[in-house]
Amino acid sequence: EVFSNSETASKLVAEEIASLIKQKQEKSETCVLGLATGSSPIKVYEELVNMHRKGELSFRNVITFNLDEYLPMEPEQQQSYHYFMNQHLFDHVDINPENIHIPDGTIPVEDIDQYCIDYEIKIKEAGGLDFQLLGIGRTGHIGFNEPGSHPNSGTRMINLNHVTRVDAASDFNGLENVPKKAVTMGISTIMKAKRVILLAWGHKKASVVKNTIEGSITSNIPASFLQNHSNATIILDSEAASEL
Ligand code: GLP
Question: May I ask which residue range the UniProt record assigns to the signal sequence (predicted)?
């Protein structure tokens, strides 16, 4: 779906998320959200916070699982996805802190495999992801599933692609400070979500958006696996859609 600007599009996405949360509330059920970081979802979070401030939306039945985190990364560090999520959403809404899950960037390497297995188990025990919000990297990554990611992949440690590290360099005051690894939910983790929305804004995403939507399904462009998802929508502004 193509929108003339990201503000209008983000409002609609926030409304879909809010209505899912409310539907679940009415049935006294939990709502399990898979959440993303990066600049793309910021306005969606802003809208959700606004709805909460106006008293229209409560997060008391919401359980969240974030897609990814750099490795190594302290949660207090400004570049961490923990910091990002607190700043843009969690500090401003009534979510129970126990219901927030973000991959831990401080896990010692020898413990990571078990940590990732446990992250998958927690998602399953929560009832699976009702909704997954995604951005897309210029490499075609979703979460941090870089080119080469297998469709059966679960949560795991990965090596960041050079392009991804270059794109993150300004946040880290130089490429040399960007972590080389990350923990990310896998392609299969994302594909199991009942509903998926991917957001892409701006001309820099136009080429990867074209490959994702019109190209073949390939691990060279991990986002292209979403072509096989039965309930995924890609939401674009006119610049991101300009090569379609
Ligand atoms: C990072 C995140 C991704 C995100 C991507 C795009 O690499 N791990 O989840 O989709 O950045 O970021 P942006 O939305 O800022 O373009």
Answer: none
**Ligand 1 centroid to residue 175 C-alpha, Å:** 16
> Could you tell me the pLDDT band of residue 69, with boundaries at 50, 70 and 90?
very high
For 90-242, list the strands marked E by DSSP: 100-101, 131-134, 156-159, 181-184, 196-200, 232-237
Residue among 68, 69, 130, 237 flagged as catalytic: 68
Q: Give the separation between CA 181 and CA 17, rounded to whole angstroms.
A: 30
CB of 161 within 6 A of ligand 1: the answer is no
Quick one: 69 exposed, middle or buried, by C-beta within 10 A (0-12, 13-18, 19+)? buried
Minimum-distance ligand 1 atom for the alpha carbon of 144 = 8
Amino acid letter for position 156: R
Q: What order do you get walking across the sheet with 68-71 strand by strand?
A: 68-71, 181-184, 156-159
The tokens for 110 are: 């020898």
Catalytic residue flag (residue 146) = yes
Beta strands in 105-200 (DSSP E): 131-134, 156-159, 181-184, 196-200
Domains along the sequence of the chain with CATH: 2-237 (3.40.50.1360)
Task: Write the pLDDT tens digit of every residue in 124-175.
Answer: 999 999 999 999 999 999 999 999 999 999 999 999 999 999 999 999 999 9
The complex scores an ipTM of 0.95
